[in-house]
Amino acid sequence: MILLKDGEKYLACDYSSEEELTKMVVEHYKDLFGPNALYFDPQTMKTHIGIATRSDGIIIRLDKNLWYLLEVELAEHPLHRHIIPQITKFNIAYQQPETRRKITDALYTLIRQDVNKKAALQAQKTEDIHKFLTEIIETSPTIAIVIDQSTLELDAISKNLPFPTRVTEFKTYKRGSIHIHEFEPLYEEPQPPKSLEKVLKVLEQIYAGKTYGESVKIVAKKLKLYHGTVRAACTRDIGLPATKFRKLIKDKERLRVLLIEKYPEYESIIVKTIA
């Protein structure tokens, strides 16, 4: 398969090994699982909890009571022999309260040792990290299977695993040293509140080449609102006079920071719009 971008051809890549695919998945785990996800290395986890079963990592969603066991696979491998024994073995261990306690304690230790992970929890205003982790691990994990190409065999397997299962294909296209990845994220973007939605839609029009006035009219027409309602969302609702908002349009970094401070849970949507 060929991917065309700006007149350039990107050729589909075959992964040389699961390790190569896993490395790419880990690099982009926040794109797959969401900006509020944390990834924990499988070898480190195995050392801490002592469960002799292979996994490609654990992912915690900080904004949801949700965690994943990551399984990265190549379609050419015998999936029954790879996936079913691994998940079955983990399921047997997971049923034991001692195993769940070890997983919780291991995650807690790793977070305390990692400045970035600790900061991510603090940003979520999590007061009792151990309690937060305990509640998550007491909830059954979701098996996240990332594969280069989905197969009928994998469809059958995923329907019969002891945990909820999500599958996504992860494809890579290459031109020289430049890579483009294609995949379906395993999370849904939160829908912004109406006030933020209006601001972002106006900014989309502006960054597409329209003036502020033209953008307000276009968005008002699309949303079936008065022009004044859209203008108010861009000014009064975010605490800015019109002149200040117009100036910030040209200063993307400051505008991005301002909106993220007001709407922190919608950071990923804001960053995508004000790139």
Describe the structure concisely.
The protein has helices spanning 18-27, 29-33, 42-49, 79-94, 97-113, 115-123, 129-137, 152-158, 194-207, 212-223, 227-234, 242-249, 252-262, 267-273; strands at 2-5, 8-12, 37-40, 58-61, 66-73, 142-147, 165-175, 178-183. With 275 residues, it is an alpha+beta fold.
Low-confidence parts lasting 5 or more residues at pLDDT below 50? none
In helices, the fraction of residues equals 40-55%
Q: Which sheet architecture does the biggest sheet show?
A: 8 strands, mixed
Structural class category: alpha+beta
- Radius of gyration from the CA trace? 22 Å
Shape annotation:
globular
Give the percentage of residues in beta strands. Answer: 15-25%
Oligomerization state:
single chain
Domain count, please report it.
Answer: 2
Secondary structure: number of strands: 8
* Number of helices, counting only DSSP H or I runs of 4 residues or more: 14
How far apart are the termini? Answer: 29 Å
Mean pLDDT: 89
- The helix-strand sequence is EEHHEHEEHHHHEHEEHHHHHH
Give your account of this protein's structure:
It contains 14 helices and 8 strands. It is α+β, with helices and mostly antiparallel strands. The protein has 2 domains: 2-183, no CATH class; 194-273, no CATH class. Strands 1, 2, 3, 4, 5, 6, 7 and 8 form an 8-stranded mixed β-sheet that branches. Strand 6, helix 8 and strand 7 form a beta-alpha-beta unit. Helix 5 crosses helix 6 (115-123), helix 5 packs across helix 7 (129-137) and helix 10 packs across helix 11. The relative contact order is 0.12.
